[in-house]
Amino acid sequence: MALRKIYYILISWIFISILPTFLAANPPEFFSVDDIARSSVGSFPKDWTTYPFQKYKAKQVYRVTEESGLKFIRAEDKSGLSVVIFKDFDWNIEKYPYLKFKWRAQNIPEGSREDKRETNDSACGVYVGFGRFSALKYVWSASLPVGYVWNKKPGQMLIITKKSGSQDLGEWNEVSINVPKDFQKYYGKKIDRLPSGIAILTDGNAVQSPSACDYRDFRISTQP
């Protein structure tokens, strides 16, 4: 009995000692980064934040909803509030170069077009943030074609169309982004800083039209 106990202790010690090396050489394929599963239905999403003094507005737009046992963030801007919410986390971009998520446009703001400031609204918008004032922004646009890029703030903010129009309105669509590849493609240089996290924005304030989108399954991944 004592020998068996010693055997199990030795096996456990060996497993614990080699686990860090194994994980370093074989990182998990993906990590969930949105905390939606740990959020309460009807509440503002857990561990997400916004700019100072914007929390009251953000709570009017974003809430956790559940459908067929699946939780997601529902964003509805009916009053032209246009408020961004952020999810910060440590992101090892070398091991996890891909950001993956699902979005579902519910209401596309009529007359919106992201490459004009007076119409710059989107049903769905997802940012890869590099601090609070630099980002790659991916949108589900009302009118701009997929692949269209607008250099909104040179060197700081680029808007990239990933989905366009109302054809798949009300249906989940999955997006996979190679962040280092896009950074080099659009900024013209290799990625030189770690992403600080993600953000989302659903708005219709510029065109004064309701806007709505659902978001879920934000994860960083080793694979597309």
Quickly describe the structure.
The chain is 18% helix and 36% strand. It is of the alpha+beta class and 224 residues long.
Q: Could you please describe the fold and organization of this structure?
A:
The structure is a single chain. This protein is of the alpha+beta class and 224 residues long. The chain has one domain: Jelly Rolls. Helix content is 18%, strand content 36%. The chain is built from three helices and 13 strands. The longest helix has 24 residues. It starts with a helix and ends with a strand. About 8% of the residues have low confidence.
Helix content: 10-25%
Distance between the termini: 50 Å
The DSSP helix count reads: 3
CATH class: Mainly Beta
Task: Assign an overall shape.
Answer: globular
CATH architecture descriptor name? Sandwich
CATH topology-level name: Jelly Rolls
Q: Tell me the series of helices and strands, N- to C-terminal.
A: HEEHEEEEEEEEEHEE
* Total of domains: 1
Percent of residues in beta strands? 35-45%
Q: Structural class per helix/strand content? A: alpha+beta
- Largest β sheet strand count, sense and barrel closure: 7 strands, mixed
Average pLDDT reading: 90
Poorly predicted sequence stretches spanning 5 or more consecutive residues? 7-12, 14-24
Widest sheet, order of strands? 2-5-12-7-8-10-9
Radius of gyration: 20 Å
Q: How many strand elements?
A: 13
